[in-house]
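lol ok so funny story. i was supposed to be doing the assay writeup but got distracted and ended up predicting the structure for this chain instead. priorities right. anyway since i did it might as well share w the group, maybe its usefull for someone
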Amino acid sequence: MRRVAVREDADPAQDSFLDVVTNIVGILIILVMVIGARVQSLSLSSEAVASPAMTATVEELTSLAQEATSVEHELAELETQMATLAAAANGASMGRMQLAEALAALKVEREVRRAAVDEETALSAQQRAEIATLKEAIADAEEEAKTLAFDEAETEEILAYPTPIGRTVNGDEMHFQLQGGNIAYIPLQELFGMARNRAQRHTGSISQLTNHIESVGPTQGFALDYVIETQVDRARGQILVRSREWVVRPQQQALGEPLEVAMVEGSAFRRKLSRITPATTVTLWCYPDSFEAFREVRAELYRLGIAAAGRPLPDGAPIGGSADGTKSVAQ
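and the output, tada:
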């Protein structure tokens, strides 16, 4: 009777069960062999002596032999079943191994996923931190923009002139022309002096002077056209000669100095101002293209404490006056 081979990787409980069965089968086989030998010896001796007791013994032994054969078949079936059980145990062991491998793979996959989740969580946290930083930067930029929007505008100094209560100019006047951004001195007093000298040198009759247009100059870039008018003061026995109307004509374009040059110390404009007395008024004849220059010159005159009078003129209008006209008003 061969021993049933058992796999080393089988369950220890199964190994113990197989050992018990194998031992029982071995004992039964030994008994059968002993009984068989005894039966054979009895059969040999039965030929000489046959008795009823012996016959019963033989029958009993025969029955035992049959039972042994039956047991051997059962043992064979048990061996087959044990082989099946061993194969099933082997399959179960393989299944356990596969299950263990699958479980290990699942653990590895879980660790990988956990690492990926941790990395994603860290990246998400970093992104949230960056978003928070960007939001804070945007909020700071918006606050700065609001601050800049409500910043105070650049302060521009505005000179506060006295209350514009004007006074008629009865004293000395110094005249300047503002045109094309230039300022030019008008030698009006000098031209009137030249006109008086010419009238004094006149040798004809008084009637020849009346309503007669005369011209003097040019001097310093200007000439004077005027109309003579005579009046007889019978009470005093005097004849008064005066200019009824006069017009100053510039002899060329762009007379004088640019304003930025005129405002510098040592300029012709500054030299003229240096000869002004406290009773002198500066009259500015201003054309539309030089109103800004007029404001700057007036501000400088105010700073120097010099009275200023403005005479705005339309484009193309001459600088002139008449005996019936108005005098300058200084502020």
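Residues 167-330 form one domain. Residues 1-8 have pLDDT under 50 and may be disordered.
back to the writeup now i swear
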